[in-house]
Every structure is written in C-alpha cells, then in structure tokens.
Amino acid sequence: MGLFFVFLSLALLPVVLFLAWRLVVWRLNRKCLFCAIVEGRAAAKIVLRSSDAVVFHDIKPLGEIHLLAVPTSHVDSIHKLRAGKTLEILEEAARQALASLGVKYDSKRVDMHFV
Ligand SMILES: [Zn+2]
After folding, report:
1. Rounded to the nearest whole angstrom, what is the distance from the C-alpha of residue 89 to the centroid of ligand 1?
2. Collapsing DSSP states into helix, strand and coil, what is residue 99?
3. By the 8 A CB rule, do 48 and 97 touch?
4. Taking CA 39 as the corner, what is the angle to CA 32 and CA 53, rounded to the nearest 5 degrees?
5. How many domains are contained in the chain?
6. What distance in angstroms lies between residue 80's CA and the mean position of ligand 1's atoms?
7. How far does the centroid of ligand 1 lie from the alpha carbon of residue 51, in Å?
8. What's the rounded Cα separation, in Å, for the pair 23 and 15?
9. What's the CA-to-centroid distance between 115 and ligand 1, angstroms?
10. I need a surface site. Which of 45, 70, 74, 91 has the fewest CB within 10 A?
C-alpha cells in the first residue's frame, strides 16, 4: 500500500509542479500594470483589442497621439519577444489602431520600450 502512494505521488509530481509554476506566473502577472489593463483591472482608454494585443492611449502622452501596444499575455523577457511573433503582432495592432484613429502608419514614429 505504501508503495502505491509513492508511485501515485511520483505520478502527480509533474501536475503539482505545473500548478505551482502557473500560480507563480499568475501572482507575477497580478503585479503587472499592463496585464491589469489587458484584464480590465486597471482603467485605460483602449483603442483596439484583439485576442493577441491591446492598444491604448498613454496616460502621459508625449505627442498628440501616443499609444501603447501590449500583448494580451504577459511577456517578462525580451528573448520571448524574439522567439515568437509578438513583435509582428504588436506592430500590426499598432497599425490597425492608428488606422482606426485616421492616422497614417509611419514606422519611424513607432518605437519600442521595455519596462
Ligand atoms: Zn504583464
């Protein structure tokens, strides 16, 4: 009987580790302002929302139109941006958001910041 529980514990270990990892990620995301905006826990003037990105007005605009585009899932490393299609997704979201505001997209005026 004791051996059964040892095997059961070993079989469940990956599940427990996965759930613990998800809990850590969830706790980290709760502290991220951009995730809070994406999830609607923080206010923002949203221009565009898709399944992959959210574009909203900066609260301290540096120009007439100053938008921020963030992915809908938390990204904590620049390496993840390089590995996936997140950059292309954000650029397309910014392009669509600007178009919805009647602003012509100009790649020279699109910048990237990491916080
Ligand atoms: Zn985040």
Report:
1. 16
2. helix
3. yes
4. 90
5. 2
6. 13
7. 15
8. 12
9. 10
10. 45
- CB contact at 8 A, 95 and 105: yes
Residue 74 near residue 28, CB atoms below 8 Å: yes
| Count of Cβ atoms closer than 10 Å to residue 19 Cβ | 11
- Write out the chain's pLDDT in tens, 115 residues: 688 878 778 888 888 888 888 887 777 767 889 999 999 999 999 999 999 999 999 999 988 899 999 999 888 777 777 777 888 899 999 999 999 999 988 877 777 776 6
**Taking the model in full, what pTM does it have?**
0.71
Query: Over the Cα atoms of the chain, what is R_g?
Result: 20
Q: Do 58 and 82 reside in the same domain of the chain?
A: yes
